[in-house]
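The data are quoted verbatim for reference:
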Amino acid sequence: METGLRRSRCRSRPLARIGLALSVLALGLLFTDTYVARADGDLAPLSSVGVPKRTGGTIVNNAAAIKLGKALFWDEQTGGDGRIACATCHFHNGADNRTLNTLHPGPDGIFASGGVTAAGQNFFPANIVNDDRVGSQGIVGSIFQFIDPNPYNAADLCTPDQTAPFFHNRRVTGRNTPPMIDAVFNRQNFWDGRANDKFNGNDPFGNTENQLGQIGPTLTNSSLASQAVGPPNNEVEMSCKGRPFNGPNSLAAKLLARQPLRLQKVHPQDSVLGGLSNWPNPGLNRSYSQLIADAFGPFVAANAQNTFSRIWGEAVQAYMSTLISDQTPLDRYLAGDKKALTSNQEKGLNRQGAMQQVSPRTRADRRVDQLLQQERRHQRGRRRSGLPQHRGPSGRGGRGPGWPGPQRRVVLGERLACRQRRLQDARPPQRRVAGATYAQRRYEGPGRGRRLLQPRRRLSQPVQANEGAQPQSRRPGGPGGLPPERADRLSGGKGRSSLRPSIAQPAERGIRPRDRRRSHLPLAGTRFRQQ
């Protein structure tokens, strides 16, 4: 008869326990929704890295959502003047490379960089040494009134608001357009990170104190959706001031009444919209309401005018999540094509790329970061207190605009490296002479209380090992000790007994003891004379 005290197979067999644990782990990895992170230094093609999984979305057909997102992203009818799309500032490899009317004068309102003296001029790339900034041109200043009821007119009805410093020219953003390629891997987007990774369906700020509203459940890992709803109604980038996203007389009402991409031609071989193209005529053969129904279902499409900001954010995020640069030469090389990189590129990968993945940050790197943070806090404190900022000629170590920056990092790094070189001990290997071992140390930099382990002797004088000899005394004139003249030479001629060769004391050089550390002279006991 079986009793309840019998040991199980797993308890009695350790290998069985290990096998069971591995099986559970394998099943967990098989059914998990997240991707396994690779170890540091284990380089792999970007195509093998999964896109962060989103939760809380209302998309029912992701392929249809990608089509809707691309149409919204490239449609020029979105702009308040009917000529600006999201892609207007992202068309060049995901960023903006335009130079005409792209300089922002900064807080002082003065154009003084790259040959630009006023708005509307061409910027010639040059180093900027003032508060000017290269941005992206948007819309001419205006105030929103109404959506034009004529669906064939893409421009909104607005009144002029042509203020300084751009007046009748298109306004320029204070920052250049960030690239959107691989932006899906960013936890937060925009240069300042205000596009929150939690999308509230209404604005870029997630569930923070800056949140302006909430439409539908919160999406996670969705900073691209938060970013997408920022520019369309921004008075500098794309819209007349005051245009709403949802409801009547809004961007939603405007686009739902117009043919998608009506002002642009879509190539029939487009990888996403080719099957919906009206080629050779402009536009698509489906309306925005139909595209929304395909991606979100008929219920969402019926109420699209009131939830258009959420639809916009989710659809544009679905499209931008496909913009991943996973076919670069490096990706092909890591996938097995050893001819994808040149010999020099392969050497650089082995020496720098892979090593940077494996090697942790050094203490010096962390210390430089700490110093930069301290200096930045100091600058912010002066700015908030109304004190004058550190300004001066830019350059190596200079405190120009943007200080502290990359140049300051180089200076701090060199100072730390110099300090480490001074404090580092150079320890030559031990040398055996005539059967005796001598430990020799030579200190090249400043130190405290460093002593020579054994007194130096001429290498031509072998050590005589006398059996039964008394232990040698290190005091001058003692049994087996140093002769008085030898001890006197080691002590610097002062009659002192010391194992350290002397150097001139600070007082002898006209330097007070308290100034010793501030002088360029070595501290006492740090440099040995040649014997």
Summary: The beta strands are 103-104, 133-134, 137-140, 142-146, 157-160, 170-172, 431-433, 436-438.
